[in-house]
Amino acid sequence: MGEEDAAPTEQDWLTYISEDLPRTVQESADSAISSARSLQRSSSTHLRSLQEFVPQIGTRYRYYEEAFFAKVKDELVSLREHPALTAGVAVTSCLLLMRGPRRFLIRKTLGRLQSEEAQFVRAENNVKELSLSVDLMKKESQKLFERSVLAERDMKRGHFDLKDAGTQIQGIARSVYKAETEAADLMDLLREIPGREALKLRADVASMASHLRQQRSAIDKKIIKISELGVPV
Fold first, then answer.
1. In b/e form, how buried is each residue of 44-69, taking b as 16+ CB within 10 angstroms?
2. What is the DSSP code string of 18-78?
3. Cα 128 to Cα 44: distance, rounded to the nearest angstrom
4. What is residue 156's predicted lDDT score, i.e. its pLDDT?
5. pLDDT of 88 over the 70 cut
6. pTM here?
7. Which residues form a coiled coil (predicted)?
């Protein structure tokens, strides 16, 4: 069969529905009105034309009708072969057509974008705060390092000073011990001398000897404390 006898395509059918068919109907109506007005002059001629045109419209209409239902049949077969996809598309379409789900989807999408933006801003602020904290800790650490260096110097100097003081204290301790020995010898000598003057001198020596013992005791405690600090005396 030739190209004129082939079944029309879907595009041809849509073109016919939107353009050819309305124009054909309008032309047919105009032709019928014109035929009615000139019925007396050319009734037989227009009747034959109308009889020839009506079968042509019927034939073309049947072609497009068959193409339309064939397309619908193919779509139904495709939907039947993919039921899950069909159900998903149908449900999604219904939800998007409903005002409530559509607003919910838009609100959630915008809310998520706003939430991500808020999270980014919050994270950026946290980074800035952390950077400030790190800088502050660096400055504080530097100050502490400088103080530790000074303290170490002071400690070394103090260690030297303490050692020197311990040595001097040891010298005083030896002098006190020597003075105590002399006081004891003097007490023995004064006991052998009679008289009030000797008795008074013996009382003075006894008082000095007691004071020396107290000094020696305090010096010994200080020497022990210096030794406990790890400074040799």
1. eebeeeeeeeeeeeeebeebbeebee
2. IIIHHHHHHHHHHHHHHHHHTHHHHHHHHHHHHHHHHHHHHHHHHHHHHHHHHHHHHHHHH
3. 98
4. 85
5. no
6. 0.38
7. 113-140
Q: Is the dihedral of CA 188, 192, 196, 198 positive or negative?
A: negative
Q: Where are the domains of the chain?
A: 3-81, 114-228
- Tokens 């004129």 found at: 4
Question: Residues 195-233: pLDDT tens digits?
Answer: 888 888 888 888 888 998 998 899 889 888 888 888 777
Q: How many CA atoms are closer than 13 Å to the CA of 41, on its beta-carbon side? A: 5
High-pLDDT (> 70) share of the chain, % = 51
DSSP letter assigned to residue 82: -
Residue type, 203: A
What letter would DSSP give residue 3?
G
Torsion of CA 220, 221, 226, 229, to 10 degrees: 140
For residues 122 and 124, give the distance between their C-alpha atoms in angstroms, rounded to a whole number.
5
Distance CA(50)–CA(24), nearest Å, equals 13
